[in-house]
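Appendix B, record 7
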Amino acid sequence: MRWLRGVKDERKVFLILKDFYDFHVIRKRKNPYYSDLRGDHTISIRIQELIFNLDRFIYSRDVDSEELCMGLIKEELNNITDDKNYRSGHNHGLMMDIALLKFYLRFNSSFTNIDLPNIINRAWSTLNEMFNKDGYTREHSISYQVYNCAICCDLIEVMSLLDNDQNSDFRKFCGKIVEATKNIIKFSTRKNGEIFAIGDSHRHLDSKDILKIENLSNKLNISNSSLEELNYNKTLSDINSEYLLESSCGFTVYNNIKEEIHLFFTCGMYSGNHKQNDELSFCLDLNGDPVIEDPGFAGYASWDKLVSFNSEARHSTFSLAGHSWNSPQYSASPVSRIVSTNNTGEVLCVTGEHKRIAGHTLRRRISINKNNNIINILDSVIEENSRFAGLTEHRFVLHPEAEWSALANGGLIAIHGNPLVELKILSESPYKWDAETIDYVSRDRKSILSTTMVVCRVEHTLQSCRTDALFCMDLRPKLVKTDYQ
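Structure tokens (predicted):
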């Protein structure tokens, strides 16, 4: 119904709403997006749009249209107050609470079945399930950190109109959420203006959401930089320093301004919402250019493509051939976690591990030597009962503009970008490099391009000395392009 705001002809609006009323209320044609759980967020949107149209008809003294709107609003009130349509701990649930609070403010005592204290308590509970104590979303997505923070802005706006003892608690917690969101934006913004597409994230953030967050930040007097200043070139390019963000939501971001190394490493499981199978995956920018990438989020693609983008087989991580990962879901015991992050004067080292494959623990340690510009990636398989035997598959998704080539011995490849990067494996076990063409979501969200994913398959036997593989990335190689095939 949002598009009806742009329709100036009120008679046309009336006829559309009447047709909607006849379809859903009179004839009761089944539509899961009208009165069932699948339509929870659409119910929230519709009830607010109906209030907008009601006020428009009241202003123009159109009694018939006013009565029609009130009839629809009463039906929507039944939908929105039905407990089976509420998702606790979900942004759709919080949207419902906001819609009900707005409804209460508009009609006050006209409807007696609105339990205001219960709505406020439920919203508080859902807010604490959506975000951790530090203000980070549990949805494992930068885009949804921003989107959910913008919903919090709507909540604070409507709560400020209510005389309620919990207002200060809401404002304090939402202040943490705003601060965490601004941190994520700052650390995940790349030199090309995009963000790292971790989880169900787009490469570009919604400007309307950013504006909401900035406005609330000003109201709450949060002393962080303004979001307009969180542009890479303004805040970072002139600083001879390094930045490290160790979040409590499953990722570590390192940005060395002097050496122009920007690393995003992720390993976490705090909900199944907007979660992809990207544990131990990383993105890497060098000299401001993306080199190792995430294929992105295909929100407008077919279901098959969406499943493909979510798969561990489409991320810069490693897995065991023939072993599928279990479904993403939160567990009280850590299934996926960043074990440690250590940053000394010479070396940054971050380690993560997960147990998404039954009976196995997969661990990755990435270390950056700041003196010689070497990145080591150590992938290990830890068996619970016996030694692992089989193939490990180590994937590196390249940016669409990056090319690659290999030396004749197959032990080392070159990624041709700015700069040239050597990637070699140091392993006593047999291995083989391959390349696959995979889908890649562009910045505009709708265009699906193609890119290259290089895969190193390492064969481990029960007689192998080690069940790990060490990859070395030389960011300042001595060889030149002509040395490669």
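Remarks on this record: The chain has eleven helices and 17 strands. Residues 59 and 350 are 61 Å apart (CA to CA).
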